[in-house]
Write a structure and sequence with these properties.
The complex is a heterodimer of chains A (123) and B (133). Chain A is of the alpha/beta class and 123 residues long. Chain A has a single domain, classed as Rossmann fold. Helix content of chain A is 43%, strand content 19%. In chain A, helix 2 runs parallel beside helix 3. The radius of gyration of chain B is 14 Å and the shape is globular. Classes of the chains: A alpha/beta (123), B alpha+beta (133). The interface between A and B is medium-sized, with 23 and 21 residues.
């Protein structure tokens, strides 16, 4: 059975592109468009992986990541942050929040995402 | 203990801001080849991006060299570059860069030769390795 992935991304265009990539490698993707919706979805039906944007309305991706890593139902789910915030500070904040990977949305993003999925045992 | 350079050996020419992205990508690849896990690869890539960005700001075009390194039974990765450009940064920026890099890698060394060199070392300890299976 395909691994379920929860994608938390507010941009519909980017959500569509990332969903296409993930479905292209055989994953089943559901989308949440903000942090609280993502947290609720992850707790009610824990996925095999969360792919999380940083810039989100209401609650940013770092806060979402911290909440998911603290909750007993979701703390062991791998989280990949896929983001335009590329500074060293942002990367360290994401990793300190418990993210398993922090991938900048650049021309290498798809390749790094696939490699990361393999290393995290999702593929 | 003496450090010995080992493969992989990679270089990136740093000329403009596009090269920050390439340097970050190369760091991830080199770290992956040595067996670093995903979060360590991200951390190392961020350190390399921070270094490259400051190098460009200081007008320090040049090359970034990435290689494996071995010291006794320890393996790690070394990132090195000529660091003459450091003197072009305001002293507080140079200090801030070194302080920032120190939070991301195990060792930041400035080798006082002509020209000076900067080396970043990040060791591959147990928790940093890719989990097998």
């Amino acid at each position: 059975m395909a691994t379920a992935v929860l994608l938390v991304e507010d941009s519909k265009t980017q959500a569509y592109q990332i969903k296409e990539t993930l479905e292209g490698v055989g994953l089943k993707v559901s989308i949440a468009h903000d942090g609280p919706e993502g947290i609720r979805a992850a707790i009610s039906e824990p996925p095999g992986l969360v792919v999380l944007d940083v810039k989100l309305p209401t609650m940013d991706g770092f806060q979402v990541c911290r909440r998911l890593k603290m909750h007993p139902a979701t703390r062991n789910i791998p989280i990949i942050m896929l983001t335009e915030k590329t500074s060293a500070e942002a990367t360290m904040t994401g990793l300190s929040a418990g993210a398993d990977d922090y991938i900048p949305k650049d021309i290498f993003a798809t390749e790094h995402l696939i490699t990361s999925l393999q290393e995290l045992g999702v593929l | 203990m003496t450090r010995v350079n080992i493969p992989p050996v990679m270089s990136v020419t740093i000329e403009d801001s596009m090269d920050i992205m390439i340097a970050r990508d190369t760091a991830r690849r080199a770290a992956g080849l040595l067996g670093f896990n995903t979060s360590c690869k991200a951390q190392l890539a961020a350190a390399v991006a921070a270094l490259t960005e400051q190098m460009l700001k200081a007008g320090g075009e040049g090359s970034l060299h990435l290689n494996g390194v071995q010291s006794g039974s320890r393996l790690g990765i070394q990132i090195s570059c000529e660091a003459g450009w450091l003197k072009n940064l305001p002293p507080n920026s140079a200090d801030a860069l070194q302080e920032q890099l120190n939070t991301m890698v195990d060792k930041v060394e400035i080798v006082e030769q002509d020209p000076p060199h900067m080396n970043l070392i990040f060791w591959l300890s147990g928790p940093r390795q890719i989990k097998e299976g």
